[in-house]
Amino acid sequence: MAQTSAKPLKVSELTSQEAWESFILYNQQNNSYVMQAGPRDCKAPASKVFATLTDSSTWKDWSSFVPKIEVEPPSEMQSNGKESSGTLEPGAKLHFGVVMNPEKPKSFMPSHLIVDKTCVPKEKGEAYYVTWSTIGMPHWLHFGQRVWKIEDLDDGASRLTTYEFQRGPMVWPIKFLYIVPN
What is the pTM of this model? Predict the structure, then answer.
């Protein structure tokens, strides 16, 4: 892939692989706090990893950080009387019980988010993406956004990379309290 230039993009503009890469690069360069986890190689194709990550019923089996999750369906589904399938889809609100201290696995901190966008590849060699953002706190005070990028490898396995971008004056107290080891 050609070198991607960093430019600010709205989530609604994430319509191509190049746009996703630009979005990630821009946020890495322009946020108060950036965390990249991984990449982590998975012994499953990207389509299976994407399906597992976007199915909230599986989280308790693989996530000790977010063992409790409730998915509120997008408002248009609610207005049609449909219940949540538990799938992470654009517009779905996520209510997490986050374990901030692994020594206290039954102690949850509530976290509220909204799924901004999901992207399924249109062509071979393109990646899957999922992004969600914080809700419930004014964005000038704290705004967090997470992106999962899932790409196929040549051997039938896949690679998952997690990016987290945060900005606002609450970033540093949050980082100090929950991220920096004592």
Answer: 0.80
Write out pLDDT tens, residues 149-170. Answer: 999 998 999 999 998 888 888 8
Cα–Cα nearest to 108, from 93, 118, 95, 121: 95
**Which tokens is 21 given?**
């890469």
Residues 6+ apart with CB under 8 A from 150: 46, 49, 50, 53, 127, 128, 129, 158, 159, 160
Give, in degrees to the nearest 5, the angle at Cα 161 between 48 and 72.
65
- Residue type at 86 in one-letter notation: G
Task: Look at residues 26, 21, 30 and name the one whose alpha carbon lies nearest to residue 7.
Answer: 26
Residue in the block written with tokens 């986890």: 37
Q: Give 59's Cβ-side CA count (13 Å radius).
A: 21
